Give the backbone structure.
Amino acid sequence: MPVNSRLFTADRRKNEEWFMLGSKIIVTIRNKEVLLQHEIKEEDIYFPEGLGIKHSLQLFCHHAFSSHQPSAEFDELSQKVVKVAGGLPLALIVFGSFFYDIKDKREWEDKLKILKRDQHEDILKRLRISYDGLHNHREKCVFLDIACFFIGWHKEHLVYMWEGCGYAPNTTLRVLQHRSLIKINEGSFLEMHDQIRDMGRMIVQEEGSNEPMKYSRLWIAEDVSKVLEYAEVSMLRDNNIQGLH
């Protein structure tokens, strides 16, 4: 059962009569902190990985073709779509519905270009729930910094910078991990799913009205060049830009 903190608190004991010896309860949640607050042991929490290529293709084809595999004509294109989804079941389902009943190969290719360039609106809305649920401006800023600039960077190299900004980075990074917005691997390098990265970057673009001069962060070389070429120094000082790469 998917839960939030309020429902988990209210319903956990109220519904105990539903269960008996041998019952198994599976809880899905966006914020690991809620489980820890209710005495669930960390070793009992399972973090599912993304689907592998085989199962990703099956899930996509189920929604795109109502079968477990694509026709020979669309096999290569289906593999490319699955790669864009990055093993995320939500993306595979949405993408499958996006391509459902399209018979023209050129139309497939056009839609694939769209998916590579722009995140699908349905996925953005669902993934953004975790971002909108962050507690404060500090947590949102660190998340957007990572999405735009710092995937693959070592944690310690960034902590000093965020400390200088007053972002309490160690606490903030723990919050982002608990909400499954980032991962920190065994080598202490930051990781983020491609779809979550794209969601973060799209938020920056939307908040800037899709005008690079108004973006808080610039990560595309073309946008950086355009802004530096046409903007006066006074404009750069007074506008919203917090970082560029």
